[in-house]
Model the fold of this input.
Amino acid sequence: MRLTTYTDYALRTLMYLAANRERLVTIQDIADAHNIAKNHLTKVVHQLGIMGVVESLRGRKGGLRLGREPDQINIGAVVRLTEPDFYMAECFDPGKSHCIMSAACSLKDVLNDATTAYLAVLDGITLDYLMKTSGKRNAPQASFKSIPIRPQPTGPQASQTVPGIQNPV
Done:
């Protein structure tokens, strides 16, 4: 399962706001911290405001803050509201499916079960949980603010060995 960039930015925004609750934050602050285009981030923040998870205060000393307590922001709900769909394969979209195996194929059922399980895990996670456990899984000494955001490698050097799948030599 891969989240859209839009959802990724929404989650990063919420985590940034949770990590900076002692002050109002600007969209530019978040954009600079994550190297995100401000114009794109503005659209994300607008939707988070409509959802009620971000509050925007206007004016010279305005900015953004969480609209709810972190333990009241469910990550599964945020993902569902920011992802356009959960079509894991062409056959999930009834208007675009042209697969000749659709009627007899069980792959759609398996992928549907996987998506349901994926969302069930996210439904059990709050922003508060993310903030309390950030950096603790892989690097106990790390804090949320010390985790650098790096672009993923592209090209031939980006290939990785995946357990159970033999890569070509």
